């Protein structure tokens, strides 16, 4: 287990870098987690992170890649809901990395 | 496709036996193991339901589970041992274990 | 061509791990684009009842998870009409859209799949 410091608070992370307590999440935490991954969050990232949080609020689980693509296509259209766009934004592992930055649990049905 | 339905729970006080019989396909078979072999007990309701299956219906029971419960199989039920159990699983297109 | 699978869900949401295990199989199958369908039978139809509150017994929200099935590509959801009737449930007032089937339609359904997994 490790932790990151964000705005004076220590945020606990599990061995894979996911939040231990999901309600620790804030946009500042997301930005700090992204920085650890060498990623500067842009508008295109944020709209996916917002969607992921909506997915989790609705279904209480983290999507694997296919359902993530399907959900993004449903909400934002096929030009964003495709593996090329999502892989490009999230270093080739959108389900895992985007879930991590959005403060969701690690997707369980994902290799 | 043919299905071998594998029952292992008691036919009384549990839905498995009733639902299985209700949904049997015309080419399916049933293998009774464990407490499901109680379905062959004497004049019980499950035994009467099994006796009412079409003539020649593929009904099987596992020998040692019958034996352990002091039961014997009626004429319309074929008794099999474990090698027979394995052979049966291969004879049908698929096996549906009612876990 | 991947083998088609019908998962027969027979357990109530609160009776143990059966309901959760069946859902996990469905989600994993769907995530890998396998042709998985679900049939709710016996007490399994209780998984579809509305207004359930998993948090009251510190469990994960199975109802919400079940609603994710279409997102995982698991669109074929069936329910046994007789099991609904016996438990006072109506196919029109369930937590997710499922197709109610009578006994004859169920026999055809069970026959059609390459694999049956009953939990």
UniProtKB/TrEMBL annotation, chain A:
Q: What is its EC number?
A: 2.8.1.-
Q: What class of enzyme is it?
A: transferase
Q: Can you name one GO molecular function term for this protein?
A: transferase activity
Q: Which GO terms describe its cellular component?
A: cytoplasm
Which keywords describe this protein according to UniProt?
A: Cytoplasm, Transferase
Which Pfam family is one of those matched by this entry? DsrC
The UniProt similarity line reads: Belongs to the dsrC/tusE family.
**What task does this protein carry out?**
Part of a sulfur-relay system.
This chain's protein is named: Sulfurtransferase
Q: Supply the source organism for this entry.
A: Pseudomonas kuykendallii
Q: What is the lineage of its organism?
A: Bacteria, Pseudomonadati, Pseudomonadota, Gammaproteobacteria, Pseudomonadales
TrEMBL record, chain B:
InterPro entries, per this entry? DsrEFH-like, Sulphur_relay_TusB/DsrH
Cellular compartments per GO CC:
sulfurtransferase complex
Pfam short name (any one): DsrH
Entry superkingdom: Bacteria
Q: Name one GO biological process term.
A: tRNA wobble position uridine thiolation
State the PANTHER family in the record. PROTEIN TUSB
Please report the name of this protein according to its UniProt entry: tRNA 2-thiouridine synthesizing protein B
Species the sequence originates in: Pseudomonas kuykendallii
Automatic annotation (TrEMBL), chain C:
One matching Pfam family is DsrE
Report the domain of life of the source organism. Answer: Bacteria
Q: Which family does it belong to?
A: Belongs to the DsrF/TusC family.
What is the protein's given name?
A: tRNA 2-thiouridine synthesizing protein C
What organism is listed for this UniProt entry? Pseudomonas kuykendallii
């Amino acid at each position: 287990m490790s932790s990151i410091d964000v705005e004076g608070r220590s945020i606990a992370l599990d061995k894979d870098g996911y939040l231990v307590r999901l309600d620790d999440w804030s946009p500042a935490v997301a930005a700090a987690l992204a920085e650890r991954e060498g990623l500067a969050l842009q508008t295109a990232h944020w709209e996916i992170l917002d969607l992921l949080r909506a997915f989790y609020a609705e279904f209480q689980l983290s999507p694997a890649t296919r359902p993530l693509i399907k959900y993004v296509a449903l909400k934002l259209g096929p030009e964003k809901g495709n593996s090329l766009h999502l892989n490009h934004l999230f270093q080739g592992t959108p389900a895992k990395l985007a879930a991590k930055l959005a403060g969701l649990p690690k997707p369980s049905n994902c290799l | 496709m043919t299905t071998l339905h594998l029952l292992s729970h008691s036919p009384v006080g549990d839905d498995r036996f009733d639902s299985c019989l209700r949904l049997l396909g015309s080419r399916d078979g049933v293998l009774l193991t464990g407490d499901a072999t109680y379905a062959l007990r004497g004049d019980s309701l499950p035994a009467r339901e099994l006796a009412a299956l079409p003539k020649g219906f593929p009904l099987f029971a596992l020998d040692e589970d019958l034996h352990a419960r002091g039961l014997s199989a009626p004429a319309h039920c074929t008794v099999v041992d474990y090698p027979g159990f394995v052979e049966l699983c291969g004879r049908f297109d698929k096996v549906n274990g009612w876990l | 061509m991947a083998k088609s699978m019908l998962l027969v869900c027979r357990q109530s949401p609160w009776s143990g791990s059966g309901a959760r295990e069946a859902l996990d199989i469905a989600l994993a199958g769907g995530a890998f684009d396998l042709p998985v369908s679900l049939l709710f039978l016996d007490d399994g139809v209780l998984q579809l009842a509305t207004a359930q509150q998993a948090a009251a017994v510190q469990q994960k929200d199975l109802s919400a998870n079940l609603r994710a099935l279409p997102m995982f590509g698991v669109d074929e959801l069936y329910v046994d009409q007789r099991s609904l009737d016996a438990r006072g449930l109506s196919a029109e007032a369930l937590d997710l859209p499922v197709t109610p089937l009578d006994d004859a339609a169920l026999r055809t359904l069970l026959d059609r799949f390459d694999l049956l997994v009953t939990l």
